[in-house]
């Protein structure tokens, strides 16, 4: 049974999990956060799968996740963390100024979205907002739009349909990373034939023709970096 995260103890620093596949980015972000007396990075991860594994065994208050990472994206990790620990605050860190990613982040369970290009300006404020369970996005977005979306999500209201399922998204990412059907099957513990069936469904759903077009689509939606 999953347990909600209790939140930071009043007067203590919030415990943060930082996940990004670029060591230099993690180092810079950690310097920004650790400079604040109320924020403390207690663990780091280099991909989404490692982030989920870290969060399973550690007492953390906030997960800061890069959107595009190997093995499992930040969005995929956010969905898994939201299921495992419903009270955990999640903040997305990305280089992509893209409304689609923002709404996917909200759908995945995140409450904030920060651009890496302005992390030195916005990240600390975003972390504090997330810990207060308040939405945050880079300046220029409409806060009312964020609140409306969150209210609809929490109240069970209708949300826009995702074009593909979570399993299809997993397979799309791995196909775009160059894995064979057998390798994908081994990673996801399914048969190569099942992988091929999902791949065929992806091509049909997305109106694409081959692996190259799947890869271009995966880059466009932020599942992998170009």
UniProtKB/TrEMBL annotation:
<feature type="domain" description="Response regulatory">
    <location>
        <begin position="15"/>
        <end position="131"/>
    </location>
</feature>
<dbReference type="InterPro" id="IPR039420">
    <property type="entry name" value="WalR-like"/>
</dbReference>
<dbReference type="GO" id="GO:0006355">
    <property type="term" value="P:regulation of DNA-templated transcription"/>
</dbReference>
<dbReference type="GO" id="GO:0003677">
    <property type="term" value="F:DNA binding"/>
</dbReference>
<dbReference type="Pfam" id="PF00072">
    <property type="entry name" value="Response_reg"/>
</dbReference>
<dbReference type="InterPro" id="IPR001789">
    <property type="entry name" value="Sig_transdc_resp-reg_receiver"/>
</dbReference>
<dbReference type="InterPro" id="IPR058245">
    <property type="entry name" value="NreC/VraR/RcsB-like_REC"/>
</dbReference>
<feature type="domain" description="HTH luxR-type">
    <location>
        <begin position="157"/>
        <end position="222"/>
    </location>
</feature>
<keyword id="KW-0597">Phosphoprotein</keyword>
<keyword id="KW-0805">Transcription regulation</keyword>
<dbReference type="Pfam" id="PF00196">
    <property type="entry name" value="GerE"/>
</dbReference>
<dbReference type="InterPro" id="IPR016032">
    <property type="entry name" value="Sig_transdc_resp-reg_C-effctor"/>
</dbReference>
<keyword id="KW-0238">DNA-binding</keyword>
<keyword id="KW-0804">Transcription</keyword>
<dbReference type="InterPro" id="IPR000792">
    <property type="entry name" value="Tscrpt_reg_LuxR_C"/>
</dbReference>
<protein>
    <submittedName>
        <fullName>DNA-binding response regulator</fullName>
    </submittedName>
</protein>
<dbReference type="GO" id="GO:0000160">
    <property type="term" value="P:phosphorelay signal transduction system"/>
</dbReference>
<dbReference type="InterPro" id="IPR011006">
    <property type="entry name" value="CheY-like_superfamily"/>
</dbReference>
<feature type="modified residue" description="4-aspartylphosphate">
    <location>
        <position position="66"/>
    </location>
</feature>
